[in-house]
Design goal:
The structure holds two protein chains of two kinds. Chain A has helices at about 1-20, 25-30, 40-60, 85-100, 100-110, 115-140. In chain A, about 55% of the residues are buried. Helix content of chain A is about 65%, strand content about 0%. By secondary structure, chain B is mainly α. Chain B has one domain (about 5-140). Chain B is about 70% helix and about 0% strand. Chain B contains six helices and no strands. Chain B has helices at about 5-30, 35-40, 50-70, 85-100, 105-115, 115-140. In chain B, helix 5 packs antiparallel against helix 6. Chain B is globular, with a radius of gyration of 17 Å. The two termini of chain B are about 15 Å apart. The chains are: A mainly alpha, B mainly alpha. Chain B: Keywords: Cell inner membrane, Cell membrane, Membrane, Transmembrane, Transmembrane helix, Transport. Chain B: Its main location: membrane.
Chain lengths: ~150, ~140
């Protein structure tokens, strides 16, 4: 039951990306190209997604626990540190170079595009490197404190 | 290459993304952050079993098939970047999203909806850096 629901939520997410046009890197790059062929569509994607999530999370979190799990797993780190600037800056360069971020990249695998497979393989390697470094840093007492949750 | 401005379809698609995030929170108690879900399919494995995350990613990947089955055809996305640029971009996106503990979905949608200061900073930074990157590659270099 839980597995089927997770599959369906992933499916709805991917369908949303396709309907929104976010699964097309050309559209994403045009959203980021303010001084060129600017396409503001993706602002509407964010507006739609945030509006539903803003109210939906508040309703869902009124429950003492999730319907199919023991507890809610919310990020506990709240302060702004270097990681939350450095990480997104590195991510932003890759996003701007390709027009691809993790969700659309995975959905593009289903389109059977060879380019998507190249990107996802490199992305997985980048994620593995970050997780490996994360583990080393957590073991190093002099390093910055490890944030307990991945959003 | 210009793309068509699609405010209605984009808003509708956005609400579907939001619905997915709400359902994942309601049923599994988890944030719909794709970088986190995908990264934790890779070793090292910690506390929880990866079956739920695997099912979510399978849904993401099979969405084009479901779309084609319902709509009868699929839009044709354009990946313009060369293979070498895709490798570099993929490494940066993978590393940066895990290091920054979120990407467009975890910070840009779920985090902003939770009014998280971390996510506000993260979203502002990746938006600004991506806009600068596109400006440099399309208009300067």
């Amino acid at each position: 039951m839980a597995i089927l629901l997770q599959f369906l939520t992933g499916l709805i997410f991917g369908l949303g990306l396709i309907v929104a046009g976010m699964a097309d890197p050309a559209k994403v790059l045009n959203f980021l190209d303010l001084t060129g062929t600017w396409d503001p569509s993706l602002a509407f994607v964010m507006a739609g997604a945030i509006a539903v999530t803003f109210f939906g999370f508040r309703l869902a979190l009124r429950r003492p626990q999730p319907i199919l799990a023991k507890r809610f797993h919310l990020p506990t780190a709240s302060g702004v540190d270097a990681r939350v600037v450095v990480g997104p800056a590195i991510f932003g360069i890759g996003w701007g170079l390709s027009g691809l971020c993790p969700g659309p990249a995975l959905t593009l695998l289903g389109f059977g595009l060879p380019s998507a497979f190249i990107f996802v393989a490199a992305m997985a390697a980048g994620m593995a490197i970050a997780r490996w470094r994360d583990g080393r840093q957590a073991a190093d007492v002099s390093g910055p404190q490890r944030a307990p949750h991945q959003t | 290459m210009a793309t068509e401005f699609t405010p209605i379809a984009s808003f509708l698609g956005g609400t579907m993304i939001g619905l997915s995030a709400v359902l994942l929170m309601l049923f599994a108690g988890r944030i719909a952050g794709i970088s986190g879900i995908a990264a934790r399919l890779l070793p090292p494995y910690g506390d929880s079993r990866p079956t739920g995350r695997l099912a979510f990613v399978a849904g993401l990947i099979l969405a084009p098939l479901a779309y084609a089955a319902v709509a009868g055809s699929l839009p044709a996305p354009t990946i313009a970047a060369s293979p070498s640029v895709l490798v570099v971009a993929g490494l940066l996106v993978g590393f940066g999203s895990v290091w920054g503990q979120g990407c467009t979905s975890g910070h840009g949608v779920c985090g902003l909806a939770r009014l998280s200061p971390r996510s506000m900073v993260a979203t502002a930074v990746f938006m600004a850096v991506a806009i600068i990157t596109v400006f440099l590659t399309r208009h300067i270099l």
